[in-house]
Amino acid sequence: MSDEDVASRLREICLNLPEAVEKPFGGHTAPTYRVGDKMFAMTGEDGRSLTFKAGPGVQDALVGSDPERFFVPPYVGRNGWVGARLDVEQDWDEIAGLIEDSYRLIAPKRLVRLLDERPIA
């Protein structure tokens, strides 16, 4: 999958969540996805990784079970965030689920309720 296809797929997953926006972080140019002013997913400057928030134990489970696909990212890893390598084959349904979980941890309760009320496709 080309870098452009990966970026498009991530954008589609993230911006499909209620009130999610794409906005760079600080002086970086890489896409960062936010709800309100809080980040729930960010890509690396080189487009080869994705970082997202995860619940307790998820980081250890993902990195421990598949270190080729997942890693502990610098800076935010100590707070439970997880890195996913985008330059290896990924299960995009799993990535979408992990992004949605991150969103749920960050978003206000009213937006999580909207997400829960969406019809199942």
TrEMBL record:
One of its GO terms (molecular function) is DNA binding. Pfam families: YjbR. InterPro entries: YjbR-like_sf, YjbR/MT2646/Rv2570-like. Keywords: DNA-binding. It comes from the Bacteria. This is MmcQ/YjbR family DNA-binding protein. It comes from Microbispora hainanensis.
